[in-house]
Amino acid sequence: MVLLAAAAVAVVVSVTLAVILGAALWVVPVVVLILALVVSVGWVLVGRNARWWGYAERDEDLFIRHGALFRTMVVVPYGRMQYVDVQAGPLEQAFKVASVHLHTASPGTSARIPGLPADEAARLRDRLTSLGEAQAAGL
Question: What is the pLDDT of residues 43-53, one digit of tens each?
Fold first, then answer.
């Protein structure tokens, strides 16, 4: 959606500049073709990246994987979590999605899960917080 809006703005700007500057009319179809190519490639890459994100709540830890070309797997034990927060910027709020960030003492095991529906992100934050407190109390 964002890619399409950016492409539409770029087409309007390029057509306006072509008319104002008196450029040849063949410039407009070339610009439109290039923008269509960029949008379609971006659309494919965004969809491909989103499909490779995943997480699993296990008994003792949270398993997170991501990456299509370079795969990364992070396992965060519940007892090692210091705090869990949910972040959503203006664009994420418009689409009602959020990111869950898990913070630990070690930066290598801190992780995030982007693109969750806002309700699911809040539920996951609450669940991880309660599991983290229960696991830390048992230490």
Answer: 777 777 767 88
pLDDT in tens, 76-86: 888 888 888 99
Look up tokens 């500057």; give the residue. 21
Whole-structure pTM value: 0.64
- 3-class SS letters over the chain: CHHHHHHHHHHHHHHHHHHHHCCCCCHHHHHHHHHHHHHHHHHHHHHHHHHCCEEEECCCEEEEEECCCCCEEEEEEHHHEEEEEEECCHHHHHCCEEEEEEEECCCCCCEEEEEEEHHHHHHHHHHHHHHHHHHHHCC
